[in-house]
Each structure stands twice: as structure tokens, then as C-alpha cells.
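Support reply, case 0932

Customer input (verbatim):
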Amino acid sequence: MTAAVGATTAGGGAIAEERRSGHPVIQVRNLRVWYPKRKTLLGKVLEYTKAVDDVSFDVFEGETLGLVGESGCGKTTLGRALMRLAMPTSGSILFEGKDMAELKAGDLKKLRSRIQLIFQDPYSSLNPRLTVGSAIAEVLRVHGMGVVGQEGMKGGRVTDDGMGLRQQVTELLEKVGLKAEHFDRYPHEFSGGQRQRIVIARALALRPSFIVCDESVSALDVSVQAQVLNLLNDLKKEFGFTVVFISHDLGVIRYISDRIMVMNKGRIEEIGAAEEVYNHPASGYTKRLIDAIPKGIEV
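Our regenerated output:
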């Protein structure tokens, strides 16, 4: 991160301690996500890729936990496991006190509305044949959360003769810094930063209590990164959701996070208040991540 973001972090030790006094939203215990790496001709597994290996931690209500590490360290797999998009080999993940592995189909659908994912590449997660307004409205319809009106679909667009879904979606677009007229435009008509705002609006449509951001600003220019990070902080204050923010960029993680969790080869190297981990790293691996930040760049 450059000075465009600024030297003051959005999280910090005092906030981290305050968050830790609250209730855990996510409780992870001895989590393993292993994938077969080498098998015999008869299918017996001889060796595993240990993407996540015996990981335990809590995420507290209202905090932003930054998850940082180099490519291949297991952080994306861990994020997918928190969404129940990657099935654990062993261990447990509790969401608001309920074991996610024991949820039935109906409960799992409800879970999907409570937990949302903001992707690294917003363009690939948007249907190019749908207007952005229709893409957000579709989420509301699927989960039965749209206002009943006279909405319909015509040529990839939402038609609405009243308040209904269109107003709901328009309000979401405006909350993320877009305009009402953007409703009827297609994804290719927007910049990368604008598309990221669109997928943030879509994630917020269901009023989730927990959001996983997986490298959600890594493809953006530094100045645009700062705008999106500040937007996320503002929205978190307004909507009150909890965040796990995944990135390989320790500068970004330091700025956005209350606490930082450093991951290496499937395991947790260290976890603590953002400024404490950044300024006084306990792990040699964390020190190397900090040393790898280009000199002269202010974070």
C-alpha cells in the first residue's frame, strides 16, 4: 500500500481488544483440509497436500480479522472452508454456535444468506448478459427477500412499475457509491473499481452478518484499493457485519484489520492485534513478509 491509504490503520490494538471481549461469530477448532496428492494404482492415498493443517482460532463479532500469507499458504482454502465451499477433512467450524457440518439443506440455505463472499475478480462473478441491477435483484429473489411488486425480466433487465425490487437494488448501489442510472448497465461498462463496488452491493443485499473478502482489492490500482477499503470500513460500521479479509499484501491487511492472522504452509504462524503483529512480529516468517514490502512505501 502506498501513502494513498495513509499511515493510520483502520483497525489497531485497542479495537482488537474491544472486539475480543464480544461473542465469537466463527469458532474454528483443529481444522484440517487435506487433498490426496499421490495414490497407488488401487486408489490408496500415499501422500496428502495439507492445505489447512490443524488450525484453531475465533473471529469475534464486529471485527475484521486479516488473513495474510504467501500464495499457496492455504489462506484461500481456509476462506472457502469458512463458507462451506471446501469440506474439512477433520475438525470443526461453528457459526454462531452451530456446527456447520451438521446443518441440513434448509439450514444451509439460511446460512448462505448470513455468510457472503466478495471475490478477487468481480467481472468473472457477474453474468455478462445481466444488467448489474438484475444480478443483485436475482439474489434477493432466490432467497425470498425482495419486496413483492410487478417486477419481471425482459432482455436481461428488471422491469418494475412501482417501488419493489428496483428501489431496493438502487438503494444498495447508492450505498456503495454508484448511481441509480447504473442499474440498467452491463458489467463490461464499468471500471474494475466500480465492478468491485457492484459485487459488494450484491453481497450486502441479504444483510449478512459475516463476509469473507478473498483478495478483493488485489487487482485494483493502489488509489482505487484505498477507496474500496474505506468503503468497506464505512459499510461495516453501518451494517454491523464481521469480516475475514484475505490478502497476500501485508500493507492492505494492516490497514483494514483489527487483528492479523499470519498463515504459512497450512498453519498459523501467529495471530494478534494488527499493530502489534506488524511492529513486533513474533515469527521469523512474518518478519520476512514485512521485509518484503518495498522500501520507501508508506503503509
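We compared this against your earlier run and they match. Two observations from our side: The chain has ten helices and twelve strands. The chain has a mean pLDDT of 83. Please reopen the case if you see a mismatch on your end.
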